[in-house]
Amino acid sequence: MAEEKKYPMTLEGKKKLEEELETLKTSKRAEIIERIKIARGFGDLSENSEYESAKDEQSFVEGRIKTIEQMINHAEIIDNGNVDVDEIAVGKTITFKELPDEEPETYTIVGAAEADPFSGKISNESPIAKGLVGCKLGQEVSIPTPGGNMKVKILEVK
Predict the structure, then answer these.
(1) What does the alpha-carbon distance between residue 40 and residue 34 come to, in Å, rounded to a whole number?
(2) What is the CA radius of gyration of the chain?
(3) pTM of the full structure
């Protein structure tokens, strides 16, 4: 039997997924069911765009519920207790600058389930995170990316 995929995440990330799951199962499902009932009242379902839209949304929500349940059931909570304070690992926040003279950038490395680059959270599966994990404060690192190698200096690890 194939081994289940693990989903590394912070405790905060797991709690957010649990909250989203609860919202989807309670209020969102009920909203969609009500929309479907109303749309059925409009008659012929074959040409009823409201009905089709509600059914599509229902399908999306049910798929999202299954995905979140899978992630929660196979969550691996990140524990950095045995990692040096100046070593980069999942769950840590890193500031680095691209060499020779780019502006510093700060990201928190998180599991793919809670990645949100616009909020400064990058996936541990991203090329940048893969290149930085295991490195230490002050190190200069060459990170292979799809656009070519990127040379960075690690300025802060917390």
Answers:
(1) 10
(2) 21
(3) 0.71
pLDDT tens across 30-42, in order? 999 999 888 888 7
Using alpha carbons only, give the angle 63, 13, 137 rounded to the nearest 5 degrees: 135
Looking only at the bridges linking them, the beta strands covering 75-77 and 7-9 are: parallel
Q: What is the pLDDT of residues 39-60, one digit of tens each?
A: 888 777 777 788 888 999 999 9
Phi, psi (degrees; rounded to nearest 5) at 3:
-75, 135
Q: What whole-number distance in Å separates Cα of residue 89 and Cα of residue 137?
A: 12
CB < 8 Å & 24+ apart, contacts of 86-90: 86/136, 86/137, 86/138, 86/157, 87/134, 87/135, 87/136, 87/137, 87/157, 88/132, 88/133, 88/134, 88/135, 88/136, 88/154, 88/157, 89/133, 89/134, 90/8, 90/124, 90/129, 90/133
Burial class (CB in 10 A: 0-12, 13-18, 19+), 46: exposed
Q: What percent of the chain has pLDDT over 90?
A: 34
